[in-house]
Amino acid sequence: MELYLIFRALYKKKFWLLLIMVVAMAVAYLLAARYDNLYQSVTKIATGFTVTNQLDPDDRVGGFYETDIKFNNLIENINSPIVVNQVAYRLMIHDLSEKEPFRQPLNSKGEPLLSEKEKLKYLSAFKAKLRNMEMLDLNKEEDKDLFRVLKAYGYSEKSLREAYYVARNGFTDYLTISATTDHPQLSAYIVNTIFEEFARYNNSLNIVQASETVERLDSLLKAKQWAKEQALEEYKQYQHAANLLDVDIEGDAALKQISSLEEKITDEEAKIRRAELALADVEAKIAKLEEEKKGNASSISAGNLSVRRLNQALLMLEQRRKRNPSNQAILDSIVLINTELSRMGVVGGGGLNIAARLEEAYDLRSEYKTQIATSTQTLENLRMRLRAVAGSKSTFAQKGARIKLLQENLDLASKEYEEVLQRYNKVLESKNMMSGIKQVIAGQPAQESQRMKRILITLIAGAGALMLAVMVIFLLEFLDNSMRTPTIFSQQTKIPLLAVLPEISRKNSAEEAVTIAPTVSKEATPPKVVLTSGFSFGSTKANNAHVLQLFRENIRLLRHELDTSGKKVILFTSFRKGDGKTMVIRSLANALVKSGRKVLLLDLNFSDNALTEAYTAKNKIEKILETGSYLASDAQSTYVGPIQVIGCNKSNCSPVETIQLAALQRFIKYCSQLYDYILIESADMAQHSDAMELAPVAERIICIGASYHTLDRTDRANIERLKKPNGIFMGGVLNRVNPENMHL
């Protein structure tokens, strides 16, 4: 639907869009009038930058970046001041010497600017400048004079730069030089002369220097190549003589061997120290045992005799115990003999064990001595191997230093050779650059002026203006958040939509809108129709009968909603001031009257009593509630008989500050017995809280909103407040809708 609204907005503004496009095209056509007298000539130049030589395998085209740099450098050289000045000299020589010059400026008297004598003078000066390829030096008076002549003829550097341009044709190998002037022959002469002067300048300067540089670099390249070959040969000879395959690998192997030998020597020294400590301990133990052996030698024989006797007695007791196991005396004797044998075994056994312990100590001493001797021999062998490897490492280090020095010399010679070779290749490339730059298409005089360009500019301007206008309208419609359609209203408010009322002319009163013929009573005052101000769509046809009929049908739809609700007291409020609340109430009242209902209009909009002013109601609610007498005569009869109106005085006070709600409720209850409907108008919710204060006296609440308003945070908060009081909020009415948006 959004796209539909946008396209419809574009269609409605089609005449404005057409007018903008026509104005833009007219302005562009006038501004481009100069192209009717301009002629363009073009020459194409092949550079050879992107073409390879198929017969030369070493010929390679550089990357995109390198190629782009070449083209940029070439364009800058063509646009260089020296080339532009040479072209200017050629143009002046042509105009001063030819019978049909391109330009012949006049002085203020309409005569030729230069006399014949002056022409010869300047012709000689420009030829000298051209021959010597000199630029003008404005510090010299004669060059200043030449510059003034160039400027008078329109051949100054600035004028020529504005007349031509040089550009690459896309990603091709070609350059295009284009010149546009008021003379077809002049345009062709400029483009051809630019290439000729560029070629002459480049040949006289760059190529000569490149040739001299090639000779110098060629001899230098040969010298560097010889030095590189000598360094390589010396490196290979020494490597072969020293039997070195790889300095780094062999050096790492020698270091690993030395490290392994040092670890083994450390291990053997640790073994020797441990064996020596163990041997010292065994020697001390042997000395101690030998002393014990000498002290116990005298007691060994006596002890052995006593032990034999006790053993014999113990053997006899054991035999007796077997025959008489329960004899306690035998058992006690066995225990005593065992105790004595144990005691004697400690003393005598120690003497018997000393020999065995000494023998064991002697064996350990022999073993440790053997181990020490073996480890000492192994340690000596390892040290000899370490000295040999260390000696070879020293020799290898000297060889490695020598080979590294030779390698560095070789690397330096190779680097110098590569640098000279690169410089040599670049010089050759610059030397041969001009051989690839050729003029493939010479500039020809244009047969027609640039009139088609004027037409093209006009069309582009019209299309651009149209697109810009469309984008602006599209953006405005896209950013429009107003409730301009019923769908948008429902999406933004999320409340039931009771009716959609189209925008009608302010000239139509509420009574005319529902086509009820006025029946004015004798006491009734003619109505004074005063509508609140509001926005009116420019595209709405005010007095269109179809729009009025659409308004009537939707008022009837609202009347039907009231009939089906079964409630009499209806409170009307609005989002903003000017939403058309009074117009809707009056139109609805007339529709109710037309269906045979009796209606009371109660104006409680104290801030803007438009309903009171519309019917010029004399009876005011404040006075009625003060007296407390609720008579039918309190309601003023309007010019439509069944409609009764009670107005209010205009003030800045809210309802609870002006009247008592309890008294108002009693009055409305009384009036409910006399009328079918009581329609109450309250102030808008944007600036007033009247609707919230009057909610207790109403049976239903209806909120009216204008389609051109945008719902903001305050409006959404007010909607939530209306939904709270006992579910009496009935819904909303979308008013002043563009008839074309009624069904969207």
Question: What does this entry look like structurally?
Answer:
With 744 residues, the protein is α/β, with parallel strands linked by helices. A hairpin with a 5-residue loop joins strand 8 (636-637) and strand 9 (643-646). The protein starts with a helix and ends in a 7-residue tail after the last strand. It has helices at residues 2-12, 14-31, 64-78, 81-97, 116-132, 141-153, 157-163, 184-241, 247-295, 300-323, 328-436, 451-479, 486-493, 510-513, 545-565, 581-594, 610-615, 621-627, 655-658, 661-672, 690-694, 713-723; strands spanning 39-46, 164-168, 174-181, 438-441, 497-502, 569-574, 599-603, 636-637, 643-646, 677-681, 700-706, 729-737. It has three domains: 39-182, no CATH class; 254-403, Helix Hairpins; 486-519 and 541-741, P-loop containing nucleotide triphosphate hydrolases (Rossmann fold), CATH 3.40.50. The chain has 22 helices and twelve strands.
